[in-house]
């Protein structure tokens, strides 16, 4: 027996003074309503109504039960109504997970713009490079760079990630520019140590139709993409940087792209979320907003004409 359902029917029958009217109010048959009340009486071991063919009235036990359950039932009904309204309001808590470098370089301006537009959403943004899945991270929405992750979440591609070998004009003036991949052995280069493995990432290049990987000796190796970008900007070394970190500096003339004929575009930035039918409106609105802001935005990768130039 569904006791909450039975108590709801009991309260409506007591309020309306008629079991048939209570059945109509609850959207069930009179027989189902009568059976629910009788099962409730059997479960409690007391009679709740005096019944005649024309009249329904509460027993003393029924009156006591009504006085006890009415406030609790009203509270429960109010809570259910609040939950339904929340589903249709752009308000409430929203937890977002993203890696540090992507969060700062790509996502943060759009997140701030969303917060300004929807002030009733309480954003909890976690920058963490050790992404597992939305459930483990207790996140409503996640962002990651790379290949789509396996799991139950939906992955929507936002932007390509180009790996661009680049140097500052000052570095090139002092040391010259490599004309081939092999020339890199004679240059000072940066390295990036991956957070998940602790190993230095190899550089990758497109040669013909094949992607090849080279272990490049690092003059300076760091585990922070922003720090690596700063090192390349300062002229300390050549680096292979993600387009989301490098493109703005290239367009401003602070960095020069090198060996662009070997540039790879194997990975992308993805937004992850659960099935849309399971999401409250605040989550769906955030997803749509971020897709509208970022999907294929040319501010974060070089176009064909720029690469040719």
UniProtKB/TrEMBL annotation:
Belongs to the LysR transcriptional regulatory family. This is LysR family transcriptional regulator. Transmembrane segments: none annotated. InterPro entries: LysR-type_TF_proteobact-type, LysR_HTH_N, LysR_subst-bd, WH-like_DNA-bd_sf, WH_DNA-bd_sf. It comes from the Bacteria. Keywords: DNA-binding, Transcription, Transcription regulation. Residues 1-59 form the HTH lysR-type domain.
């Amino acid at each position: 027996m569904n006791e909450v359902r039975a108590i709801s029917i009991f309260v409506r029958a007591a309020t309306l003074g008629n079991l048939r009217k209570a059945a109509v109010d609850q959207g069930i048959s009179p027989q189902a309503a009568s059976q629910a009340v009788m099962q409730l009486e059997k479960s409690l071991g007391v009679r709740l109504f005096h019944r005649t063919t024309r009249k329904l009235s509460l027993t003393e036990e029924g009156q006591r039960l009504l006085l006890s359950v009415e406030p609790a039932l009203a509270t429960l009904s109010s809570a259910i109504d609040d939950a339904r309204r929340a589903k249709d309001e752009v308000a409430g808590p929203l937890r977002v997970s993203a890696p540090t470098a992507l969060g700062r370089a790509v996502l943060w301006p759009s997140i701030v713009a969303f917060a300004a537009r929807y002030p009733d959403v309480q954003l909890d943004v976690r920058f963490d490079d050790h992404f597992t899945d939305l459930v483990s991270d207790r996140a409503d929405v996640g962002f990651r760079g790379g290949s789509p992750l396996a799991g139950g979440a939906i992955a929507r591609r936002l932007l390509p990630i180009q790996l661009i070998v680049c140097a500052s004009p000052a570095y090139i003036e002092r040391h010259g520019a490599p004309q081939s991949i092999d020339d890199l052995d004679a240059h000072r280069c940066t390295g990036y140590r991956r957070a998940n493995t602790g190993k230095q990432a190899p550089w990758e290049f497109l040669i013909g139709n094949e992607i090849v990987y080279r272990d490049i000796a690092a003059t300076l190796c760091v585990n922070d993409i922003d720090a690596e970008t700063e090192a390349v900007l300062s002229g300390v070394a050549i680096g292979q940087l993600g387009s989301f970190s490098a493109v703005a500096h290239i367009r401003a003339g602070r960095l020069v792209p090198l060996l662009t004929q070997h540039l790879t575009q194997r990975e992308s930035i993805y937004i992850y979320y659960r099935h849309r039918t399971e999401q409250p409106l605040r989550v769906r609105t955030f997803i749509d907003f971020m897709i509208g802001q970022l999907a294929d935005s040319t501010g974060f990768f070089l176009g064909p004409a720029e690469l040719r130039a």
